Each structure stands twice: as C-alpha cells, then as structure tokens.
Prior knowledge:
With 103 residues, the chain is an alpha+beta fold. The protein has a domain of 72 residues. The chain is built from 1 helix and 5 strands; from the N terminus they run E-E-H-E-E-E. The strands form 2 sheets. Strands 2-1-3 form a 3-stranded antiparallel sheet, with helices on one face. The longest helix has 11 residues. It is flat and about 55 Å long.
Amino acid sequence: MASKAITPVGPPAGISPNAPAARRKRRSMNGEDLNVRYFLLKSGSSLDKPERGEEVNSVKQVLVRSFKTNQPFLTLMAWTAVEDTSEESGDSPMIVKRVVARS
Length: 103
C-alpha cells in the first residue's frame, strides 16, 4: 500500500483569511512574533511563583537553552486596553486588547 503525501489547505494556523491586516499578528520574516520576549526561568524560582532570568533573543535559542539546561522558559507579551470604535462593534464601542509594540 502506497502512502499519499498530506498537503495543508487554507491559511497558516492562527491567521483568519478574512481578518483585516491590522488584526493579524505581526511576524518577522522567519515567522517569529516580533512582540514576544523569551526568558529562562530564574534559578531558585518555580512555575508557581515564576521570576524572569536571562533574556534570550529568539524562540530557537530559548528552546535549545531550555533543553540543554532542563529549565523551563517564559514568554512575555505586553498588552494595553483600547476602545474599539470600528464598524464591526456597531453602535456600542467595546474595550479590546492591543499588543504593545516593542521599541
């Protein structure tokens, strides 16, 4: 019995084809989210009470460091609450979250 290759259909995971461009996640050319920061868990802290340790530049680097040291890593993303007055919200404006861009 020959196996048949599976080909993905549709947009990449996490991106709605009908979502306006402003609502899509901002990603770099390599597919990483530009607003996420990666930290190793500080020595002596726990997942019940996490503390940020050393910051790592990319998801690839943090995965390797976490694997080598058998240490969990944390991701950090900052948000702010803003009023949504778009036509989609109708007559009653809504409060929505918006990612705070890294400077």
